[in-house]
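Page 42, continued from yesterday. The earlier attempt failed because a stray header line got pasted into the input along with the sequence. Redoing it now with the clean sequence only.
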Amino acid sequence: MAWLRIPPHYLAEACAGEVFFDGPGEFSRRREAVRTGMPEDVRLKKLAAAAALMAQSGQYNYARCLRHGETAAARLAAGEFVRRALEMVFLLNRVHMPYYKWAFRALGDLELLSELKAPLEEILIEPGEEKIERISTSVIAELRAEGLTGGTWDYLEGHAYEIMRRIRDPEIAALHVMEG
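This time it went through. Structure tokens are written below.
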């Protein structure tokens, strides 16, 4: 449960930079454990939360806010979608997401879905439903490719519940889908 409460940028910071001296190697051993040691059920929970929040903010609330003439709220929803999409991509890569101001720079170096860097930046500059849907489609395809969902629908929320069903730890599985 502690893994769920630690902000990912703290974990990324602990794994960044060079180690100039570690005589007995204890620091490096612990650092590597932090870099690679997130329990899979925690990663699944975080993936499910990111999927649910991407669906809520981008696939649902963005267009809803526009329909109600709430342009500023729509922009906030688009920003939240981008934030959650970044979390999703880093989790799919099994890399701790750095502090927000470094996230886009680091995104370009990731193996999976690094091609989403430009489209996510575009959403922050000029949001649009079609852009949100293209990114959602790419994320869903990667979730399927990794065997994390078998769903065929376009809306991310259903995939969030599919991911939740793969969690074995009863305490983590009992958490709300958006928690984490």
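Notes: Residues 16 and 72 are 36 Å apart (CA to CA).
Reminder to self: strip header lines before submitting.
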